[in-house]
Amino acid sequence: MRFLAAIALLALMLMPVGATAQPVTSQAIKMVNEIRASKGLAPLKLSRKLGRSADAHAQDMARKNLFSHYGSDGSTPGKRARRQGYRFCYISENIAEGQHDIPEVIQVWMDSPGHRKNILSKKVRSLGMARSAGNRWVMVLARDGC
Q: Per residue, what are the HEC states of the chain?
């Protein structure tokens, strides 16, 4: 059974970059929740809407050769989340470029005070994440409602 799970995970990792945010988010949310648990923080839940928002921004950055929290149309993380139907009272975004896998990008973010603060925020409840061509990574952390 573990062999089949390993094959399934490998297949997800080998999917064309940008095909979907889901495989990236599944592993990332597990890692983020382990980090948060070690600090006594509540786990985050997967948000498909935030995943789509992250994916759209990652793809936009790849297409336009950008690296910014602003989209090529001037959009902000909040505006992109709203486009996906996510109503938030708090939102933050981590971006990175060049890391080859999820453990590497999570470590880079944890080593950065601002990105670490986003991951460890008590204000966030949900997470979405994506990777695009050129290893551009986007993680959106938010809380809906409030």
A: CHHHHHHHHHHHHCCCCCCCCHHHHHHHHHHHHHHHHHCCCCCCEECHHHHHHHHHHHHHHHHHCCCCCCCCCCCCHHHHHHHCCCCEEEEEEEEEECCCCHHHHHHHHHCCHHHHHHHCCCCCCEEEEEEECCCEEEEEEEEECC
The C-alpha atoms of residue 146 and residue 137 are separated, in whole angstroms, by: 27
Question: Tens-digit pLDDT profile for the chain (146 aa)?
Answer: 443 333 333 333 333 344 444 457 788 999 999 999 999 999 999 999 999 999 999 999 999 999 999 999 999 999 999 999 999 999 999 999 999 999 999 999 999 999 999 999 999 999 999 999 999 999 999 999 87
CA distances from 104 to 31, 97, 107 (A): 11, 11, 5
| Contact indicator for 119, 109 with CB cutoff of 8 Å | yes
Q: How far is CA 41 from CA 37, 38, 69, 110, in A?
A: 5, 8, 26, 15
